[in-house]
Amino acid sequence: MGEANGHTARYREIAAILRRHSLGFMVGLLGIGRILPFRRDGAGRGGEGAGTGQGAGPATGDTSPEHLRRALEELGPTFVKLGQLLSTRSDLLPPAYVDELAKLQDAAPPVPVADIRAVIRRELGAEPEELFATFEDRPLASASIGQAHVATFADGTEVVVKVRRPGAVARVLEDLEILQNLAARATRSWGPAREFDATGIVEEFAQTIRSELDYLQEGRNAERFAEDFDGEDDVLIPRVFWERTTSRVLTLERMRGMNIADAEALDAAGVDRRHVARRGADIVLQMTFEDRFFHADLHPGNLFIHDDGTIALIDFGMVGEIGEELRGQLSGLFVGLVRGNVELLAGTLVAMSTGTSAVDREVLREDLRVFLAKYRLRSLRETPFARMMADLFAILRANRLRLPREMALLFKALLLIESLAHRLDPEFRLGESLEPYAERLARERLSASVIAKRIARAGADLGELALEAPGVLRRLLDSADGNGLEVHLRAAELEPLVARSERIGNRLVAGMISAALITGVGGIVTSERRFRRWEDTFLGTGLGVIGALGGYLAYTAARRRRRPR
């Protein structure tokens, strides 16, 4: 009951909405009934139907995915955002749920204009009429977190003023605390929640939505995209007017144009739809593989097309970034797919997974063999990308593998742009645009600089392990000199060790590191120059030290056997 302090009314509301949408069983799975105090009307302790899935309202004929979507809509902005994020997680949810949650609209009733004006006055220090030549009281759009109004400057420049809804932060923070509590409870009592790391998913979501609450961060994202596409005249990113921007108010240049999904309007304007489809895909691929910073919410409402085919982007609250480790995993994934390398593909998927459950590698390998045999990939341009990814996501779900947030957002962005491009040009294949980038990643994988970076990362891991080695060896020797050693190994306990070895490098590198571990202490601590000669000294000397240790252990064992009883 302590967890409900201050949130009891909200917990009751969540439980009632879940039951109303035939999701009463979730009240029990999430532990809401145990959090709420007992009430005779059944609102506490799960109430009637808590474990049956029966709703309080009349049957609607909705499917389970539809019930979930409607419940999230009724639960409000935070849960709508959660549903939108889950719609990007084809590695976690079946296609029916992903498709249904993708329908969630981030819309909300308009905020009274007097409240919007009060926020502007408080944040920017003046009335809208003093800050802009014109300001439209009627909102351009109203969403769960913010509301947008059109304004102009004295020189005629049109802008969009986004104002954060009053009270939005308090409600989001309350809901985040509740979600974290529910995820923790579900993880303790429900196997799937534990296997898919529900607490980790909620934490990722919390980071995402907190960044969307900060309009300063969205402004910085917009400027970074503008820098990345500087000099490319057919891509427009709105200018940020920082003198009219705070964490609660964001003023951006207004973007106009046709909706990218409106084929009739594009045809009437004489726009080359085939060119727009390919250019749109190229923009996303450039963001991902060259700039390593991509727009993660490119639905049709965030892309506008001009008569000359110029593409304008808006709404930069949700973004993804490709770090070195993720880039290396992408390389392994593409190379494994194209070459049909089951071992490389399995190792890459396990290495990138953020799940906590053990993986049966033989089952995973067999699933991947069937998968690769189905597509018989020779080049990405021949690949039905969406169908292939759907099958790969099914394998991830079956083997309890969870993609990191950035990778899930990336695949969602690629699938979104492929869907849009295919509507513009039915003959479009994303693989054709993707193939040059995949080939470049494959070449980079074997380049000297990338290998050097991988060795450096392995060296860093080795350094941390080496610092712990003296204490570990001392305890090992003390144990051998005392009661002797007993070794118990179980396959399940070896899985984390195998996964860690594969993250450091391939099996050969892992073996060399293991053999050289003891001698590595001196080489790393003394000087960088001596570390650079590790390949000449570690293996031979390490084996020698290990042999000496083995001799010492045999000697102590013999001494123990000679001791009088």
Outline the fold blueprint:
Layout: H1 8-20, H2 25-29, H3 32-35, H4 64-75, H5 77-86, H6 95-101, H7 113-124, H8 128-131, E1 134-135, E2 141-142, E3 146-152, E4 158-164, H9 168-189, H10 191-195, H11 198-213, H12 215-228, E5 235-236, E6 249-253, E7 258-259, H13 263-268, H14 273-291, E8 293-295, E9 303-305, E10 311-313, E11 319-321, H15 324-339, H16 342-352, H17 361-375, H18 385-398, H19 405-424, H20 430-445, H21 448-481, H22 491-504, H23 507-526, H24 528-531, H25 534-562
Helix pairs in contact: 1-4, 4-5, 4-6, 9-11, 14-19, 14-20, 15-16, 15-20, 16-17, 17-18, 21-23, 23-25
Q: Total number of helical segments?
A: 25
Total count of strands: 11
Largest sheet: 5 strands, antiparallel
Average pLDDT metric: 79
Radius of gyration in whole Å, from Cα?
Answer: 28 Å
Helical content band: 55-70%
Beta content comes to: 5-15%
Shape: globular
Low-confidence runs (pLDDT<50, min 5 residues)?
Answer: 38-61, 489-494, 504-548
Question: Given the helix and strand composition, which structural class is it?
Answer: alpha+beta
Q: Please give the alpha-carbon distance between the first and last residues.
A: 60 Å
